[in-house]
Amino acid sequence: MAEKTYTVSGMSCGHCAASITEEVVEVAGVTEVDVDVPAGRVTVTGESVDDAAVRAAIVEAGYEVTGAASPAAA
Questions:
Q1: Helices 51-60/14-24 angle, 10° precision
Q2: pTM, 2 dp
Q3: Which residues share a beta bridge with 33?
Q4: Residue 22: which pLDDT band, with cuts at 50, 70 and 90?
Q5: Cβ atoms 30, 45 nearer than 8 A
Q6: What DSSP state is assigned to residue 58?
Q7: Is 69 within 8 Å of 4 (Cβ atoms)?
Q8: What is the bridge-based pairing of β-strands 70-71 and 2-9?
Q9: Is residue 74 predicted with pLDDT exceeding 50?
Q10: 28-53 per-position pLDDT tens digit
Q11: Reduced to 3 states, what is the DSSP secondary structure of residue 64?
């Protein structure tokens, strides 16, 4: 499984996390979504996950990806 972490702006509460999780978990290959609201990070775990599709899902949820995706820290 591969992990990528995205920097996301505009998140402020648990509802924000739930909205992002609901959209991103629908992306093909995604098996887990972890949203860290205070840090402004979304970590996505899965196989052959399309980076553009994850970004589009975050935007669909109403938030902005402000940083490049990076491999998640171990």
A1: 140
A2: 0.90
A3: 44
A4: very high
A5: yes
A6: H
A7: yes
A8: antiparallel
A9: no
A10: 999 999 999 999 999 999 999 999 99
A11: strand
Both tokens of 9, joined, read: 């702006």
How many whole angstroms from its chain centre is CA 15? 14
- Check the CA dihedral 53-16-65-72 and report its sign: negative
Residue 36 and residue 14: Cα distance in Å, rounded?
Answer: 10
Burial of 54 (0-12, 13-18, 19+ CB in 10 A): buried
Three-class HEC string of the chain: CEEEEEEEECCCCHHHHHHHHHHHCCCCCEEEEEEECCCCEEEEEECCCCHHHHHHHHHHCCCEECCCCEECCC
Name the 3-class secondary structure at 36.
strand
